[in-house]
Amino acid sequence: MNDSLIGIVGAGTMGAGIGQVAAQAGFETLLFDISQEFIDKGAARVRAFLQRGRERGKISADEETRILSRIKPTLELQDLAACSLVIEAAPEKLELKREIFQKLDSLCSPAALLATNTSSLSVTAIAGPTRHPERVLGMHFFNPPPLMALVEVVRGEQTSPATIEQGLDVARRLGKTPVSAKDTPGFIVNRVARPFYIEALRILTDGDADVRTVDRIMKDGGGFPMGPFELMDLIGIDINFAATQSLYQAFFHDSRFRPSPIQERMVLAGLLGRKTGRGFYTYGEK
To answer: How many domains in the chain?
Structure first.
């Protein structure tokens, strides 16, 4: 097992971003996905992010080159066997994550940490099929991972105290601010944030105000850096909708967490926000 090697499962928005964070912190990083297309898109995101940072004077050209050199793409999950930490950033589907962790559990050293970046699914349930659930934890990064400081380090039912301490330490080594959270629906941030999105969607549904008005009021009057609709577009309408569905089910259909039909229709239409060029707003080169 290589203590300086971190594996990432999933090269999407979150996986690529977490891989960039690890590489910037000096870790050799293996970025796995099931197709070359997904890996190429993830690598392009990292290159574009670093290029913008260099153009703004945040990093030098040499730093950019070194960071990129630490990220190694792979299509073989078994390549992650030597990692001291593997962070899963696959789509928010419980059975998919359980399958991934069952495979990782058999591949990786029992001393390796296995972390899920889930935003709302149960860490306990994800760890269920593994033989060593004591080394499974949640490490919930926020979008975009290179810019957002907070990481929720989540303790599953069978996660050991030593695993949580290691997770907190790794998060700090990645330059993040970790907070320890219990394995409750939505953990801390997503549970607190649901009313921000849900009430905005109810206002829109009731016709009390339009998208731009709600966002402007929350920024000008509430002091938020982004309005709820801008933030949903940034996160991804599909990801936000999935998190709301997860909390709604986990709290036994408590009306406080009821998803909005507006989000469902947008997901079905493929209007997912910035990543598709259109969500509550339309995005172009300018």
So the answer is: 2
